[in-house]
Write a structure and sequence with these properties.
The complex is a heterodimer of chains A (316) and B (395). Chain A has 316 residues and is mainly α. Chain A is built from 15 helices and 2 strands. Chain A has a single domain, classed as ABC transporter involved in vitamin B12 uptake, BtuC, CATH 1.10.3470. Classes of the chains: A mainly alpha (316), B alpha/beta (395).
């Protein structure tokens, strides 16, 4: 409802600019990376955990992917995977693998050592920032073929000309949505988030699913990092920082959208869309540059409080 | 008798002078370097040489680039021992051997070319002469800036070098360093008293904005892709507004504000172009905004937008100039500033008094001008540097 109201508001205020194909092309393409990151984060939030290391995973994913694009970095494998496109495929796979390792580390520390997820992922995030700087002392440029992975328009004949990165987001969100809502694993994730003790007593291996959540979340972040490097043409330390607050805001906004305060994938996408429409609307209105931050922070507070309120209402 | 003796003595002196002059000419025309002959009063020698040449009508001495005796920053990189006044950036004889056993603490703003090019020139010089250079990046975080400075001073570092962190934030460290007698050299710290400050002369921006104004025909809409709140960047914005409001009052200025990342500036430019489709020129604060702006323009399919920027990096800004993506830019002399800072560190450690403020000119690269090739080290050793004891705000 809020999203619709927002679209109507900005549409009425700047009808000539807001409802143009070009503007919605910009809005939706800008949703892509945030959508992938937020989708992964939703899984962690569903089981009641937190992941503050996503910004670090985004940055490291990009750096690793671009590092492995360099044929000299992987002399034997690169030759084996000719032609060159396989190098790109390999680079993204390596980024995903690094994400999986980060997620596994987070999950094991949280479940085995029983350290709070907030503290663990905060620490992991800090470690990852250090690793970025250790690996790269400056921005690392990508090559044009890698840039095409994110920036190519497909199908080109379509008037909207969506970018490949948008299709990546759609694919990831469909997969995650299917996992959460249509599989046994998804229902178990929900059960753990609802009542961990009950879930454990009913025979669900809670630790395994919590680790799975962390792994998928970090893989999404690292994969988005690789796409971000492809999109911007460089991999740089700290490139994921701006996604952290936005991803959490999108997830919490999504929680109050569809399922009575529970985190869910369609809701998360709605949250992402809401943020990007807000950003676009503020720019079109010519409002000062501090408004996007104020609005993002304000909606985070509003959505968290609404989420809690709605949950309490339904429990009562 | 006396007259004859005097005449004889004069004749001998004249003959000696002719021989000396002839020998001097031979030395000048030879290939051997005169660097080792320089002394601390080389500047006075140089001035007397030039005046005698001028008197004799010689046109061999000129102040163009071909007559520039300074080493390029890349040549200076890793230099060991004494660098002559003629070869140095500072015009002073510099003994880099003073670095032996010394530790230099560097508080660097970010791992961006503007800063890393500077430290990359100096670190090899310090290390080649037996010293150590430790670098902490503040990442724009004021707390880290101050903590890094305190750490270096606390462990007794011999000198501090602040690269591009705001001088106002570093104020407590400057005071502490002054109290301890530790040299505090700073690049782009903007006129904080008590530091040996080196910065670029921003006149290049005035020229760039004049160029933009003329290219726009004195009317239309210009966008500034900017990151406000950082002094080095705010000055660029300020110059833009000043020049355009004064000389081209019919040009409307809008701001595309980004978050310091390429993606952020790309998104800001995309949104900005939707809000202001009549923008016909965009100026970018530095290479990162420029990268985002160029991507957004490419995505939009627009080819009618004049793009300008500010750069010191041959792999980004200069490359875009060569590719024709960027129409004009202000080129920083980062490598020269890095070499100069290194000399000042050595001179300060040697107890040589130094100017409070040194300005290094920028170069405005306009269409048709030569752009530095990749691997060339960028632009450096342009017009002479300018030293002053006044605050730059004072004049």
């Amino acid at each position: 409802m809020v999203l619709v109201a927002e679209i109507i508001f900005f549409g009425c205020m700047r009808f000539d600019r807001f409802f143009t194909t070009a503007n919605w092309h910009v809005i939706l393409n800008n949703c892509a990376l945030l959508g992938i990151i937020s989708g992964g984060l939703t899984l962690v939030l569903i089981v009641g955990d937190f992941d503050l290391s996503i910004a670090g995973a985004v940055g490291l994913g990009g750096i690793v992917a671009v590092e492995f694009l360099d044929p000299e970095s992987i002399p034997t494998v690169e030759r084996a995977l000719e032609p060159g496109n396989w190098t790109i495929f390999f680079a993204i796979l390596v980024a995903l693998a690094v994400g999986a390792v980060i997620g596994l580390f987070n999950g094991l520390v949280v479940t085995v050592f029983r350290i709070n997820a907030f503290v663990t992922t905060l620490g992991t995030g800090a470690i990852l920032v250090g690793v970025h700087r250790w690996m790269r002392d400056r921005d690392l440029p990508t090559n044009n073929r890698f840039k095409n992975v994110a920036n190519s328009k497909w199908p080109e004949w379509h008037f909207f000309q969506p970018k490949l990165v948008l299709w990546f987001m759609i694919g990831v969100l469909l997969l995650l949505g299917f996992l959460v809502s249509r599989t046994v694993a998804g229902r178990r994730l929900d059960a753990i988030g609802g009542n961990e003790t009950a879930a454990r007593l009913s025979g669900i291996r809670v630790s395994r699913y919590r680790i799975m959540g962390f792994v998928i979340c970090a893989m999404c972040a690292a994969g988005a990092g690789a796409l971000l490097a492809a999109r911007t043409g460089v991999a740089s330390a700290g490139s994921g920082n701006s996604f952290l607050l936005e991803a959490f805001t999108a997830c919490f906004l999504g929680a109050v959208t569809f399922r009575n305060g529970e985190f869910n994938i369609p809701g998360t996408f709605t949250g992402v869309l809401f943020l990007k429409v807000t950003f676009s609307g503020i720019a079109l209105m010519g409002w000062p540059n501090y408004w996007p931050s104020i609005v993002t922070g304000g909606f985070l507070i509003l959505s968290v409080s609404s989420s809690g309120l709605i949950q309490r209402l339904f429990e009562d | 008798m006396n007259k004859r003796r005097i005449m004889g003595l004069l004749a001998i002196l004249v003959a000696f002078a002719f021989v000396a002059a002839a020998c001097g000419d031979d030395d000048d025309s030879g290939s051997s370097s005169a660097a080792s002959e320089t002394s601390s009063d080389a500047s006075s020698d140089a001035s007397s040489d030039s005046s005698s040449d001028t008197e004799s009508g010689s046109d061999e001495v000129d102040l163009t680039a071909s007559g520039d005796t300074r080493l390029t920053p890349r040549e200076e990189q890793g230099y060991v021992g004494v660098l002559s006044a003629e070869q140095s950036q500072s015009g002073r004889e510099v003994d880099f051997g003073i670095f032996e056993g010394k530790t230099i603490g560097v508080v660097r703003v970010l791992q961006v070319p503007e800063a890393t090019i500077q430290s990359d020139i100096c670190a090899p010089i310090v290390e080649a002469n037996g010293g150590t250079m430790d670098i902490i990046d503040s990442n724009f975080d004021p707390t880290v800036m101050v903590q890094a400075g305190e750490t270096f001073l606390g462990r007794g570092d011999d000198a501090i070098w602040n690269i591009s962190n705001p001088g106002a934030v570093m104020r407590p460290i400057i005071d502490e360093a002054n109290a301890a007698g530790t040299p505090f050299v700073s690049t782009y710290n903007f006129d904080e008293p008590g530091s040996i400050d080196i910065k670029e002369h921003d006149w290049g921006h005035a020229l760039l904005f004049q160029f933009i104004g003329y290219e726009m025909g004195g009317e239309g809409k210009l966008a500034l892709a900017i990151l406000p709140g950082i002094e080095t960047l705010d000055i660029r914005t300020h110059i833009g507004y000043s020049v355009l409001n004064y000389s081209f009052p019919n040009i409307e200025i809008v701001e595309f504000v980004g978050d310091g990342t390429i993606e952020g500036f790309r998104a800001a430019t995309e949104a900005g172009l939707q809000a202001h489709p009549d923008v016909t020129a965009i100026y970018s604060h530095w290479d990162v905004p420029a990268a985002g702006v160029l991507q957004a323009i490419e995505d939009s399919g627009r080819d009618d937008i004049l793009t300008t920027s500010y750069t010191g990096d041959e792999e980004t800004g200069f490359a875009w100039m060569r590719e024709g993506k960027l129409t004009a830019t202000v080129a920083q002399a980062n490598s020269q500033i890095g070499a100069l800072a290194c000399e000042y560190l050595a001179l300060a450690l040697s107890g040589v008094p130094l100017p409070e403020h040194t300005l290094v000119p920028t170069t405005t690269l306009l269409p048709g001008m030569d752009v530095p090739e990749s691997g060339s080290g960028g632009i450096f050793n342009g017009p002479p540097i300018f030293e002053t004891s006044q605050l730059v705000d004072d004049y």
